[in-house]
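TA notes. Do not distribute before section.
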Amino acid sequence: MQRLSSRLGALMACALMGCGTPEATDGTTSPASQRAALDTLVNVTLNKPATASVSQDPFRPEYAVDGDITSDDSRWCPGIYNPTRLLDIDLQGTFDLVRMELYTGYRDIRPIKSYELFYDDGTGWRPLPGASQTNNTSIAVFTTFSQPVTAKKVRFSCTDTLADNCRVKELWVFGAPHEGQVNIPPVVNAGADRALTLPATSVSLTGSATDADGVVSSLLWTQVSGPVATLASTTTATLGVAGLSVGTSVFRLTATDDAGASSFDDVSVTVAPAPDVLTNVALNKPAVAGTASASYPAPLAVDGSLTTRWESTYAFMTHNYLDVDLQGLHEVSSAELHMSTSATSAFAMTAFELQAWDGGCWKTIPGTVVESHPVTTPLRTLTFTAPVHTDKVRVVCKDKPYCRLRELKLLGKPSTVTPTGPTTCAAGQQTVVRNLRYDYALFLPARYNDDRTTTWPVIISLHGVGGNTLTADHTAVLASPEGLAKQFNSASFRAAMKAIVISPNQRMPFVTNGDAWFNNASVLALLDDVKRDYRVDLDRVYLTGLSGGANTGFEMLLASTAEFAAFVPVAITHVYATNPNLCGLKTLPIWAFQGALDEPSRATDIKTQLDTACGAGPSAMRDVTVYPGAGHSGATWDTAYATLPLYDWLLQQRISQRP
């Protein structure tokens, strides 16, 4: 290794003769002997550890010693209004310092006007002789120190006004290793960490190495860890890497100097999987709707054509829906809704949202609730707040009388996440559900969420002609609803109920008077909705009603009993014993309740007729329960619905067990 054997005094003589300066200011050239002395000096700050009292991101202190004087992005900036603006450089050894080159400013303007330079020989900071200035006007300052010094560290202090941002592109200090100093290993920089995304599998890594007291004699790249790659040009500064795979691979650049000392630096290359290709996972998947025009059925909304559409039938109620079965679990991130009858027509839906099946009920997808959408804007793109993992998606249209959807595109991919654990449906309490048939009070059993596989019996409960279950605006359950819904005011009753209970409200929103007769077809359609909306045990579906609701139940069952496992009529007001279709109820389990003051024969005569006039053997109807002193009032139906043995009997009945 080449070393200086001269003492500090010789360096001083060299400095006084112009050693370490570029071209002399008078245009003459330094003598050959002086140039020879200059050539023995090295930049001892290059790529050395640099720290600062304060830095303005992203202009870090190490940029002031990286050797780059051309890029404006490669500089240290402490920011304005910072009273202390210090840049410290650890020389990683002891050197005899002779001169410096200071490059400041922004492009070719804004030089640092006032600064001080200090050195530390291990005993504390001292001013570097002849290095400080108070009225500098140049962006490039070349200074030969008035007295060489021996130092381990160098400090630059900006003393410009606080409103000035001291920009240091490079601080180069030249000197030679102090006499008697041991060999200093090279300083190695393997470069910045890299990141790739498949299908990219190759990269070039460029490193560098400097030696403060000699020269770098060799370079060697090796792989330290990670998926094995193919390396090329391993003994040059630039390494070729090929055959990378997903994961993080670490590569090491080792430099050896002319005295045999080595050091290294590592760089990592992280390869990410190829980005997922999102496709329209709704395309040509099975679709059903709450209602659909015969000419515009639900599957036309997912057929890939913008010239066809789903269109609902005329409806008095809101909350029509379109369900798409994705036929497997998918991760869905966004949706496109192409609405109206064409791309230029003014029949777009104005209020809608998307829901996802979560294993027990439908949950609104965050980021998809739309209100006051312009009717003249047929396309709406919805980006979900977070991707959802589901196998079914629902579009809920809150308009009336028509909903029109030319195409629903759901952008997603097959999901690798299998939902486990409990669901999060509103269980153990009554809530309000909006439905295009009838809005209703919903009760899910307290343990409904415990697992994702258990199915539950369902009870459809119809109020009377004068009754209600919901508030006038259909946003809450009444404090004292009519019928079975009233019993859920009791905590003990809620805990005991082991069935889903649907209590429809027959009236339109804000209509609270007049006769409220349920429509048979609408009740059956509501039941179909319920079967799609909850985990229903299809073998245990029950019907009950009071007064006019009980009459509706009889009329439905006289037409067909196939949908129900049992029937509980309370306080019927019509005579059905003479109905020509009555014998169709012989095998249907029925438990009727009637007040003694409310013509109990309407119920008892049905029992007699089924037992005696509809073929051999007794019917499946139980003896009628008659309440002494009770009339056509809550004294009958509230008492009946509070009878817990009723539900013990009811939930044992199954469609599959009927003759």
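Switch to the second chain here.
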Amino acid sequence: MCVAVAGGFFLNSTETRQKHHAVEQQAEAMESHLLSSMQIKAEVMEAMLAFIIEDRRIIAALESGDRKQLLELATPIYERFNQQNNITHFYFHDGQRVNLLRVHKPEKYGDTINRFTALGAEKSGSLFSGIELGPLGTFTLRSVLPVFGGGRLLGYIELGQEIDGIIEEAHTMFGVELLLLIAKQYLSQSDWEEGMRMLARPFDWRLLTNMVLVSQSLEEAPIVLLNRVDSELVEEIDVHRDVELNDRNYWAAVIPIKDAGERKVGSLIMLHDMTSLNQDSKTEMLWFAALSTLISWIIFLLFYRVLGNTEQELSDARARLIEEGEARTRQVEQALNIQRVLDEMLNISLPPLTMKEVLSKSLDAVLTIPIFTLQQKGAIFFVAEDGKSLEMAAQRNLSEVLLQSCAMLPFGKCLCGRAAATRELVFFDHLNAQHEISYDGIEPHGHYCIPIISEGRLLGVLNAYVDAGHVREAAEEGFLKNVANTLAVVIERKQAEEKLEEMAHHDTLTGLPNRIVLYDRLDQSLALARRHRESFAVVFLDLDHFKEVNDTLGHDAGDQLLIDASTRISGCIREVDTLARVGGDEFCLILMDTRDPAGATVVAEKILKALTTPFDISGQSCQVGTSIGIAIFPADGEDSETLIKNADAAMYRAKRQRNTYCFFNNKG
């Protein structure tokens, strides 16, 4: 009997420690994931702010406090950011942090902004990001950028987005239940209740003494646990055992939530379902107790005769205890290995790599995990632009035949196409008729094909190879589904970065390179021209009579005119040349390898002819022209600033006559 008691105590104690460690490790991984996700979103908003301040008209309107002009310029930007990147807040503040304009809510302005992020930007004189708690009990990730000009502070530009989706994403990715509590001291009861009604969430201010339950993934809240947690906000992750709810047993980890001011404003409760594990442990304990009792009676009755056999039984029992403890340890290590792979995938997407580089590295991390029996072969597919087929984006160790046959795969074709069409995981442990793509010498194998989906939108398919006859495993399948969820986050992140990269370097109206690209190309042209001792021309263009069209027919007509004009100018130059829109109705050209003014003259005359031909804008004929200024390297300048300045000066001379061109050195 003593053996049963001692063994049971040892087994239970070991298992309890392992459960505590596993739940604590999972909570730490979730906390790290949430922080990483918010950091990434903050970096994306930083890129957006960098794009916004490139528009000199916006900076001028901010400096003058022109609300009408700011609203006109910022509204299309906000609509695009809202649609593509879920930006929900867009502000302009003056140098004293007095709000000039809420682009998302223009009727409200004039209040002083005292949020931690605004104060942090003021104090640091640089970009400041962090989460802020709103009156509705929801969190907003905010980034505030001070804007300087002429050596003085002109004001602030602020972007924000609601981050409730991050928690929902974590619920799906980690496979745990989540509850979010906020301290009442930071909320107004009436505002909070109104907000919960607006969000169509259940609410009860009186449910707890010090906190309110803002959101939950369970239909029923564990009141006993909430009352335990309600007493105080924790400093670090705190684990609670044996939370009973709806005949299920959970272990809980309480994760502290801090805002941009480092205030403890709430707690995120993670519930890990231990029911199945407890049932298995209970069965094992019963068997162990029965075995130990039997051994004890045998010892009592046959002590002298079977002492040697009893010692062997005890040794076997100890061995079983050790084996069970090692099994529990392997389970914990398996969970940690899986989480490391998922975190590695998220971290891979942080550096400035291309989408294909990120997906290739992520695929390596998935296929080389040692705890599952996946072959080191597989692929990741994107949904192609047509929305009806898959395009291979990354692969490992596939044959040349498959690289060609599966480069573009229609929905419904073969196993990956079937996963895309049905949006369901596809598994086969052998080659069959549904494995439509085959070739001579193909080796027997099986597949997992997992759709990559985000918020109901199909992004692609993950394809992993397994040995023929492979037994489908729930743990393996769960891991691959988590990988697909993580890939969805990675893909959306990189797509957002690519969109921002495009926006940061191209004019949003015409699609032409902007001023940033122009200066970069100009630096390259200077380096090449110096190396080969060649000349090139910088050409500055300004449309004649553009303002009259804009004022008479409206801004939409003016925008269409700029688009059509840029198309005509592009048709007058070579592929090696660069055309950029530098603002308003101004364009700049770099004409490579222009050995003498005659070459620039030919291009200028072609552009004059192209732009003099009337434009058809919304059914009305519009006639404009252009004034062109030309500077030649190295005669008219040996650096970027000088060449552009001199081409601009030549353009203003041409403007006196209109619809003509002038060289800076008065030739032509």
